[in-house]
Specification:
2 domains
């Protein structure tokens, strides 16, 4: 079954078919889906890393986590094995907010601490947090609190050719990357290098398309000798 039931994304098979054509194996006699799928997932992870490093928000998600009271205090950590646990697709949290559970209060930003949480007694709110050893560390609170976590996520691995590639317009960079890995596996180093260059160029253009809408204002250098005029009212 596909990871997400949607037609908004291209399928893994689209990238695999293009990759086979690039290495002159359109019929799949040498490079079947089973052979190419590990290459595709490697390229998928690399594309996610480069998007994240460029600040592209497509890999940012948000989830609310309710922290109940246990012996009068909420839990002091949220991890992969705690109850409740971290979102299963979380790589690293970016920001946290908190709200008294069940209330209509607005979510209040929490302070991120580095170097260890202070030795405070739990109060009504959590107030601060630390990301350490893949765990969100908390002081604890004396009332039930809902924590809103905004985080960098990792997309699920592709398994079937019908699985959706959850990064829009990414067929070309992924296909070039897969073709490069396939060519390298057969000792065609020149073709592999050419395909890697094409993959990086396609990734750069994809990143540019994502970040361009965030550039609201054009900038123009002031000419030499420019003096700002002042008008007195």
């Amino acid at each position: 079954m596909p990871v997400v039931s949607t037609t908004a994304y291209d399928q893994a098979e689209d990238a695999l078919n293009l990759a086979r054509s690039l290495v002159n194996d359109a019929a799949g006699g040498v490079f079947s889906d089973a052979v190419l799928m590990p290459f595709l997932n490697s390229g998928y992870r690399e594309l996610q890393r480069q998007l994240a490093e460029s600040g592209v928000s497509v890999l940012v998600s948000q989830q609310d986590v309710d922290l109940p009271l246990t012996n009068g205090v909420t839990s002091t950590e949220i991890s992969d094995v705690s109850t409740p646990q971290l979102p299963t697709d979380l790589l690293a949290p970016h920001q946290l907010w908190e709200q008294a559970s069940g209330s209509s209060d607005i979510f209040v930003p929490m302070e991120k601490i580095t170097g260890g949480l202070p030795n405070f007694q739990p109060g009504s709110y959590l107030r601060m947090w630390e990301w350490r050893e893949d765990t969100i560390q908390l002081v604890g609170a004396t009332q039930e609190v809902t924590v809103r976590i905004r985080y960098e996520k990792q997309l699920p691995a592709l398994v079937l050719g019908s699985d959706p590639v959850q990064i829009r317009s990414s067929v070309d960079p992924l296909a070039y990357f897969v073709a490069a890995m396939a060519a390298r596996s057969r000792g065609a180093r020149a073709l592999a290098e050419d395909m890697l260059l094409a993959a990086q160029a396609a990734i750069d253009k994809l990143i540019e398309r994502y970040v361009r809408p965030e550039q609201f204002k054009g900038r123009r250098r002031k000419p030499y000798g420019y003096r700002r005029s002042v008008i007195y009212l």
